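Posting for a labmate who doesn't have an account.
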Amino acid sequence: GIPLPELWRSCTPSALLRGVALLGPAAAASADGGPDRGRLRTLAVLLAPGEAPLHGVEGHLFPRGLQAARSGPPPVRCFSTVMTDTFTHRTYIAVVLRFVEGAAGPPAERPLLEPLVTCAWSCLPEVSAPPFLELLAALHAELPVRACEELPVSAERFARACGCLVCDIPGPPPGTAVVFHLASRPFSALSRAPPSGMPSSHVPLQLAVGCFSVRTLLLAVRLLLLEQKVVLLSCSAMLLTVVCEAFAQILLFPLTWVHLYSPLLPSTDHLGSPPPYLFGVLRSAFGVDGDGASLGGGGGDFSAFDLDTGEVREAPEAASLPQLPSAAQSRLRFGLT
């Protein structure tokens, strides 16, 4: 018979992961606050055959960099996000961050704790779900405990821990799962829904739905079904990713959002793009940073939903658009209350 990996490759030729990168401080930690202070660089990267590096991932994940810490160590952080290109191709990124002992400082001071980040990316949304993040955190624990170790040593350990995910395990076809064994511990790393079934919930839907009242959620669904311009605002990049992915992949089922899409828009200049689009924008970039700030009644032919305050600003033509059928509205209201 055909070996299982070869059988999977005949169904899904792409690898489970397109790449894995190890990120660390751009320069040795120091107290002088130099220009590289807090900036990250790629220490090592593993790419699936034929894949290109994911450019700009450091700035996308940590636009303000990561400062070294003296107290702690801070807890390990796991999160996920999405990068899109101009053709709305989505790259799902799983991230694990911990702080490790860096270069030794003066004897009277505590050693600096420098950030060490593992990020893995794939075209499969399930990579951003908690089960895969748990596996990635376990693999991340295999990395050295001192950031000041020689780079070849770090890269070798990194390759041993993550190489099989990039080079040996293909992406599973719909309706199957991947169970990964690490140190005799099984991880149900990734489970894909059947082709005709409900999509797997790779983001916490309760968190996404909890940002809306019933009325505003129905309004957002109506605007997206009518292919309008919708902008979501928050001070949390994680919350923007969760809510945008919930609308784009799950809440509109059996439909999906195939138009302009970015959970974390790099610039508000793109808000002038032609419809339809679904964008997530940080409140600071939108000009409503700070507690109590209001969306106001400013211009813009898009509808804006503030996920932090619950405020809504509808586009001028939103009131004249068709309403959802009354039967559908009743079923949705009943299911949400």
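Reply:
Got it, the structure tokens are right above this. The radius of gyration is 22 Å.
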